[in-house]
């Protein structure tokens, strides 16, 4: 017997496992549509010009690296609030939003989950079926029981909206409902504004606790348009959690830049909530890291850098949408008997392509094209060099 002899081998992360298999594949024509990162037309993760500029200025300034405040950089937290809730938000003016810098969107979810566990230990958490694979593990890890609410309907490539509402209406008060504010991962299928209005109404009426996860703001229809759901909840005055991430929108994946924002009912509540969030952070990692936060803050708070970044974000958004329509057209041209038009209507980096696990296996084995077994493909990994091969391969496996 040793200290670790009873330790079982934990299951491998399925997507990271897919990456290992991709890296080991010797075929030069291989394409990785599995991972959740944006690559440019050259197939590389871009370093945005605005980021590069801000980094140069930061190096030139040779600033010392003291500890940040527990809640992070004040100018960063304020910029996050404006991006999410709008420059003119009445809630911001009334000090009804608390924002803390977090280690990416994941870190924001974790701080929020830990705080919620102290607040309401017996609450149940509901996540969409399907959802980002880390949602369940993260909330279970924080000690919650997690259930799925109906979301994706494969027959229509849409949302099982009536079933979703029925589920929400059946939940006990205090149930935490995790919602993808835009660019749903993994399906790419979002609620319409009308549907969001109904969700807000039911959440408010039933006393549910909305936890909005927004990891792709700016990748759907634009920065403000993608925040519509967040703002609908804010307008309704509902106490809410929002985890946000700049990993994709600034292409700063490894810098871990995100934030947790909480909408409260008063400035006084905000003070109390902030004090508790600081306790959660202090006992986890004490204070957030400097570099990514400083870069994002410098860009969001400087009009020239911000304009440059918004343009680059727009380029990424447009490129993804072009890849969507292009894939649909190329599949049609390749004689695919199925209509893939729904792919153009989806938003964000991902698409539930409708491919079966067997078809995904064939794509990998016969063509060196890697996708997740659920049929999720990362549209942001398509480019003008690989899209013809991908369309031809998909057409071949579906017939
Ligand atoms: N939420 C969702 C829905 C995501 O897709 C992701 C990342 N893929 C995250 C949160 C986490 O983002 P981050 O990498 O910033 O931790």
From TrEMBL:
Recite the UniProt keywords alphabetically. Aminotransferase, Pyridoxal phosphate, Transferase
InterPro entries found in the cross-reference section: Aminotransferase_I/II_large (IPR004839), Asp_trans (IPR000796), NHTrfase_class1_PyrdxlP-BS (IPR004838), PyrdxlP-dep_Trfase (IPR015424), PyrdxlP-dep_Trfase_major (IPR015421), PyrdxlP-dep_Trfase_small (IPR015422)
- Indicate yes or no for the key word Transferase: yes
Checking Pfam families in the record gives: Aminotran_1_2
What the entry lists under SUPFAM superfamilies is as follows: PLP-dependent transferases
* Enzyme Commission designation: 2.6.1.-
The residues covered by the Aminotransferase class I/classII large domain are 29-394
Q: Which domain of life is it from?
A: Bacteria
Report the top EC class in one word: transferase
Say if the entry is tagged with keyword RNA-binding: no
Give cofactor(s), names only: pyridoxal 5'-phosphate
Gene Ontology molecular function terms on file: transaminase activity
NCBIfam families reported for this sequence: PRK09257.1
Q: Which family does it belong to?
A: Belongs to the class-I pyridoxal-phosphate-dependent aminotransferase family.
The entry describes its oligomerization and partners as:
Homodimer.
UniProt name for this protein = Aminotransferase
> Which species expresses this protein natively?
Robbsia betulipollinis
């Amino acid at each position: 017997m040793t200290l670790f002899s009873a330790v079982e081998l934990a299951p491998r992360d399925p997507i990271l496992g897919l990456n290992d298999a991709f890296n080991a594949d010797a075929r030069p024509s291989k394409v990785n549509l599995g991972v959740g990162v944006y690559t440019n037309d050259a197939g590389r993760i871009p370093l945005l010009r605005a980021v590069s500029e801000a980094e140069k200025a930061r190096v030139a300034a040779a600033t010392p690296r003291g500890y940040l405040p527990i809640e992070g950089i004040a100018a960063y937290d304020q910029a996050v609030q404006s991006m999410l809730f709008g420059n003119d938000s009445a809630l911001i003016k009334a000090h009804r939003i608390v924002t803390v810098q977090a280690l990416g969107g994941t870190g924001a979810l974790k701080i929020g989950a830990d705080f919620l566990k102290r607040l309401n230990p017996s609450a149940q958490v509901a996540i969409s079926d399907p959802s980002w694979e880390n949602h369940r593990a993260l909330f279970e890890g924080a000690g919650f029981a997690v259930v799925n609410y109906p979301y994706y309907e494969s027959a229509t490539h849409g949302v099982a909206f009536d079933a979703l509402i029925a589920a929400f209406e059946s939940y006990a008060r205090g149930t935490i409902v995790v919602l993808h504010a835009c660019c749903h991962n993994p399906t790419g299928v979002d609620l319409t504004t009308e549907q969001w209005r109904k969700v807000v109404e039911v959440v408010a009426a039933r006393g549910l606790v909305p936890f909005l996860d927004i990891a792709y703001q700016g990748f759907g229809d634009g920065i403000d348009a993608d925040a519509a759901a967040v703002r609908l909840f804010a307008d309704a005055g509902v106490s809410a959690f929002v985890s946000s991430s700049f990993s994709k929108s600034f292409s700063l994946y490894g810098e871990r830049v995100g934030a947790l924002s909480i909408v409260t009912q008063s400035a006084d509540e905000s003070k109390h909530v902030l004090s508790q969030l600081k306790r959660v952070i202090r006992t986890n990692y004490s204070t957030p890291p400097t570099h990514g936060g400083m870069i994002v803050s410098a860009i969001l708070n400087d009009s020239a850098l911000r304009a440059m970044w918004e343009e680059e974000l727009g380029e990424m958004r447009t490129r993804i949408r072009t890849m969507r329509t292009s894939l649909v057209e190329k599949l049609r041209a390749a004689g695919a008997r199925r209509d893939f038009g729904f792919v153009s209507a989806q938003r964000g980096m991902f698409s539930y392509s409708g491919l079966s696990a067997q078809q995904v296996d064939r794509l990998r084995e016969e063509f060196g094209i890697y996708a997740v077994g659920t049929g999720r493909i990362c549209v942001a990994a398509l480019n003008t060099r690989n899209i013809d091969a991908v369309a031809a391969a998909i057409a071949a496996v579906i017939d």
